[in-house]
Each structure stands twice: as C-alpha cells, then as structure tokens.
Amino acid sequence: AKNAGRNQYQLYDAAMNARAAERLVLAGDLRKGLEREEFFLAYQPQVCLMTGRITGMEALIRWKHPERGLVSPAEFIPLAEETKLIIPIGEWVLRTACRQNKAWQDAGFPPVCVSVNLSACQFGQPNLVAMIKKILQETGLAPQYLNLEITESITMNNVERAIATMHEINDYGIGISIDDFGTGYSSLNYLKKFPIQTLKIDQSFVRDMTEEHHDVAIPTAIIAMAHSLKLKVIAEGVETEMQQQMLRERGCDEMQGYLISRPLPAPEFEELLHNLPAA
Ligand code: C2E
Ligand code: CA
Ligand code: CA
Ligand code: CA
C-alpha cells in the first residue's frame, strides 16, 4: 500500500511536470505570437436597453495559434499575466483598439466608445498613464472614446495607489468600468472611493435570471446601488429575450451579449455597424 501511494505521487508529479512543460511551450508561443501578428481583436456591441442603439463596444483579444487554432483568452491571459507578457500584449490591444475606433470614426460611423480590458499587472505599471496618453496621441482618438475595464483585483496590492492612478486616467477624460462586478469581495468598501462611471454585472448573475430560477435579487440590488452612486450599469452575457426584459424592467442601462451579437472581427463588426441603429 505504501508503494502504491508513492507511485501515485510519482504519477502526480509526472502529470504536474507535463503541465508545467506545456505551459512553458505555450509561453514561448505567446512571445512569438506577438512578433508574428497572430493576435487580433474581436468587438462586441454594447447597446442601450431603452432604445436598442449602440453605445459602445468591448474589444476582446483573440489568438490564432499556428497549430492549435483559436486559443481562448481564458487560457492564455492568465499565462500572459504570470510571464508579464501581458505588458506588451496589453499595449498592443490598446493601440489596436484605439486605431480601429478612430478608423471607424474617420469612415463616418457615429462615434462610440471602445472598452479595453486592463489586467491588474498592467495597472501596477508606473508608466501606464503615459503609455495610454501616447497611444491616444499616436492614433488621434479622443479620450472620451476610450474606456478601460478593470476588476476589483487591481486594488489588491496598494489601494491608495490604484485610486490615484484611476484619478489620473479619469482626469484625462477616459472612462473606467468595474468588470465582473459582484464576484470580488472588496466591492462595497471601495466602490464609493473609486473614480469610475460604470459597473458591469457579471454574466454569472445574468445567467441565473431564467424561467426556472427567477433569481433576480443580485442584479436588482446591483442596479439600485449603482444608480444611487450615479453609475451606469451594463449587464454582460445577455443571451435571452427574457433576461433582456427582466433587466430592462429593473432599469439596467445597457447590455452586452450573444442576444445582440457575439464578439466579431473588425470587418464583420463593421457590417453590424451598418445595420444597428446608432447612438
Ligand atoms: P470579460 O472581460 O468578462 O469578457 C466577457 C467574456 O464573455 C468574453 O469572453 C465574451 O466573449 C463572453 N461573452 C460575451 N457575451 C456572452 C454571452 O452572451 N454568453 C456567454 N456565455 N459569454 C459571453 P472572452 O472573449 O473569451 O474573454 C474572456 C476573458 O478574457 C475576458 O472576460 C477578460 O477577462 C479576458 N480578456 C479578453 N480580452 C482581453 C484583453 O485584451 N486584455 C485582458 N487583460 N484580458 C482580456
Ligand atoms: Ca471585460
Ligand atoms: Ca466581464
Ligand atoms: Ca470575466
């Protein structure tokens, strides 16, 4: 029995090593991916629940791996964060999203805001604000057409510094949203201190708003609280008419989800812009 136990540990070790090796390979691929231009952005519309008009779009990174095909950001973003590759990748995302949004404005589409996800480790970079300003100048996009999505985890290391950085971003005219709201634990403590404009209700809460569950307590509470703090609320992951209806009845401002559209590569998103009513 003792031996069997030890063998199990050895098997476990071997599996761990294989996983570690696999991640190492993927990390190397990530680095090359940036050079080989294997990344692209997909855009998902955000629409007003009252009017159905498009108010903005979220830029979401996609990786077309030469052998594996499309790799999910849920898989490679954590790895990019661990290896700090998220710094150059994140900068690429910002530049690409700003350039694309400016191109759409120049092409005559009504101006809307592009939302870009920032990871906590980007947020901790001392030159973050300078980098963002440089990109806006380079691309010519006006600051009010960029929005940054952050999660509560950015406050984990140094809350005061995180708030100071948010102020710098905000003072420059860039909006800030709290992403995945309700899944962190510091929410209510800090919310009042954050210079933010928008809360995004996490899709896990939207998913529970079904015929069977009727679990609307959390979205209802988030919407009421956000409005009392003068914040806009966007529901993510809206897939059904019923969820849309329930959110609308509760005064949620905007929505994002497959019901309207999946995230689309730029050319297909442009098609959608032709068809959706504009802001
Ligand atoms: P997120 O920021 O919460 O993005 C929302 C995710 O929900 C996206 O997954 C989107 O495709 C998906 N989604 C949108 N509508 C629906 C829906 O109706 N139903 C369902 N089931 N899902 C929906 P995606 O694109 O796979 O991204 C996953 C996560 O990866 C993002 O979550 C974000 O945390 C991260 N991520 C994506 N792009 C970037 C990026 O450029 N930078 C950083 N730092 N993180 C990113
Ligand atoms: Ca997001
Ligand atoms: Ca989210
Ligand atoms: Ca998420």
TrEMBL record:
The keyword Oxidoreductase does not apply. Keywords: Membrane, Transmembrane, Transmembrane helix. Residues 23-277 form the EAL domain. This is GGDEF-domain containing protein. It comes from Tumebacillus avium.
